[in-house]
Design goal:
Helix content is about 40%, strand content about 15%. By secondary structure, the protein is an alpha/beta fold. The chain has one domain: Rossmann fold, CATH 3.40.50. A hairpin with an 8-residue loop joins β6 and β7. The C terminus is likely disordered.
Length: about 180
């Protein structure tokens, strides 16, 4: 029992160290330019509200760093921050990842799965590259954004959650018509 207690204490300290390192990683918002200071000020204002946030910028410009900073500056900082990358997942897989699924909802659904939106309850969910989500899934996400409730894939019971939404994209979202980019 003493050996197990010591091992548990060692593991707990390891988790604390890793958590501190991760938190430090997202304090990398640096810059002296007026534009960067304005962006940080705007992010801090957003953190003080419960508003949904959309971060726009090219790939690699630090949108996730800003999303995590907004979360860490908010009242939700002690709750989960769950990042979801919308690129590269099929509509079906992304839907199951987001909303979860009931046992038997599709082939291979051997047990109920809790989705990431539900896991983020009380915290923040970050949709990275939201502009790459299929139009069909966008409709389900819109309902979730409006009502803050959803149903698991194959489910019939509405599930309500309290989450902060931060989304990011490198696309100009206003420039789409029938799936094509408009110049």
């Amino acid at each position: 029992m003493v050996r197990k207690a010591l091992e548990q204490q060692r593991l707990k300290r390891g988790v604390e160290i890793l958590s501190e390192e991760v938190e430090e990683r997202y304090r990398l918002i640096v810059g002296e330019s007026a534009e960067m200071k304005e962006a940080v000020d705007l992010a801090k204002k957003a953190a003080g509200s419960s508003a949904t946030v959309l971060l726009l910028g090219e790939s690699g410009t630090g949108k996730e760093i800003f999303a995590r900073a907004i979360h860490n500056w908010s009242e939700r900082k002690e709750r989960p921050f769950i990042a979801i990358n919308s690129v590269g997942l099929s509509k079906e897989l992304l839907e199951s990842e987001l909303f979860g699924h009931e046992q038997g909802a599709f082939t291979g659904a051997h047990r109920r799965k809790t989705g990431k939106i539900e896991l983020a309850h009380g915290g923040t969910i970050f949709f990275d590259e939201i502009g790459d989500v299929s139009q069909e899934l966008q409709a389900k996400l819109l309902r979730f954004l409006q009502e803050r409730e959803f149903e698991r894939v194959g489910g019939v019971t509405p599930i309500s959650v309290d989450v902060r939404i931060i989304a990011a994209t490198n696309r100009h979202l206003g420039a789409f018509r029938q799936g094509r980019t408009v110049p």
